[in-house]
Write a structure and sequence with these properties.
This protein is of the alpha/beta class. The chain has 8 helices and 17 strands. Strands 2-1-17-16-14-3-12-13-15 form a 9-stranded mixed β-sheet. The chain has a 6-stranded antiparallel barrel with strand order 5-6-7-10-9-8. Strands 4-11 form a two-stranded parallel ribbon. The chain is globular.
Length: 355
């Protein structure tokens, strides 16, 4: 398939700039794989689409304050730094803007969130073919421990902010209520709709809830630059599956109970760690560069909860592989006409592949 096959028209005003007043008040579009029919409700009604014995899999990765700001030690020019992945304490691969001014040996004085010069600083020690920089941080034992005071929540560029009060809201709302393991540079946004009360209601209905961890990085949000999907290479992302989660999922598959993934990141973990021959899920830690697009056979996942994703994104391609290309693209066009809200702070979809 071609990347252009996943384009669609989206009015700019439908890109959600703020979350719903309450997490579970967002809208939910339910798309049937069997007949392509669609239903509309509020996310708070999602337990009505679950049943006793289902297994709900959540990605419990926590977003770190991965956006840093600083100045060139020589010229005084400003830099914006987005942490990508820790190589070792105080050594990180980053996206740095403007990159052309960040040659090897460039030193950067970091600022805190109030614009004051911090003790921590950084030096560019390497670049790669994609234009990313490797920074060595100095003046701190571990820059990861300084992010609460120095870093900002790394909101995606389509969310615009102009005042600090909105940023304080983002520090809570751009994080799932069950986030635990720190390491993501973007939120697993399908989980943003859940409240503790909603999760408890789901448990009361006999649904088992378990967790996986995938630290969201470039593999999730990097754009597809190739025209042909077969030519696109995903960036690797780290993930972890506990023995308990593996056992819970494997028991459900053996007993033909549904496994419901919350978000494309959960799907990528489950399908990456699945044995395609036995259908069993392996516990442990690993890295994945799995790229899921139509057509695709799914080994573990029976239903998917997800947000509405960017045109021509790998996330939309995964959803189309799961729900059927024609049905999903038709549902997206319908969601536009019905004025659903799109992207990270937007509304949600539920796609069951079997009842």
């Amino acid at each position: 398939m071609q990347t252009a096959d996943f384009d669609y028209l989206l009015p700019p005003e439908l890109v959600a700039q703020t979350p719903a007043p309450k997490r579970d008040q967002s809208r939910l579009l339910v798309l049937s794989r069997l007949d392509g029919s669609m239903q509309h409700c509020r996310f708070g009604g999602v337990p009505d689409y679950f049943r006793a014995g289902d297994v709900l899999v959540l990605n419990d990765s926590r977003v770190i304050r991965a956006r840093l700001r600083g100045r060139n030690a020589k010229s005084g020019g400003t830099f914006e730094i987005l942490l990508l992945e820790e190589i070792s304490p105080n050594n990180w691969w980053v996206m740095l803007r403007p990159g052309k001014r960040a040659r090897v040996q460039t030193e950067i004085y970091l600022h805190d969130r109030h614009g004051r010069v911090a003790d921590a600083r950084a030096k560019v020690i390497e670049t790669n073919s994609e234009g990313h920089r490797c920074l060595q941080f100095m003046g701190t034992k571990n820059i990861a421990d300084e992010l609460e005071s120095l870093g900002e929540i790394p909101l995606p560029p389509y969310i615009k902010r102009s005042n600090s009060s909105e940023s304080e809201t983002d520090s809570e709302r751009y994080q799932t209520v069950y986030a635990k393991a720190a390491g993501s540079i973007a939120a697993p946004t399908a989980g943003l709709h859940f409240t503790p009360q909603l999760l408890e209601e789901i448990r009361r209905r006999g649904v088992q809830i378990c967790h996986v961890t995938l630290h969201v990085g470039l593999g999730t949000f990097a754009p597809v630059k190739a025209d042909d999907l077969a030519d696109h290479v995903m960036h690797e992302e780290r993930f972890w599956i506990s023995e308990e989660t593996s056992r819970t999922v494997n028991d459900a598959k053996r007993e033909r109970r549904r496994v419901i993934a919350v978000g494309t990141t959960s799907v990528r973990v489950l399908e990456s760690a699945a044995n395609p021959t036995t259908g069993r899920l392996r516990a442990g830690s690993s890295r994945t560069e799995i790229f899921i697009y139509p057509p695709c056979r799914f080994t573990i996942v029976d239903a998917l909860l997800t947000n509405f994703h960017l045109p021509e994104s790998t996330l939309l391609m995964l959803v189309a592989a799961f729900g059927g290309y024609d049905s999903v693209m038709r549902a997206y066009r319908h969601a536009v006409s019905a004025r659903y809200r799109f992207f990270s702070y937007g509304d949600a979809m539920f796609l069951p592949r079997r009842s």
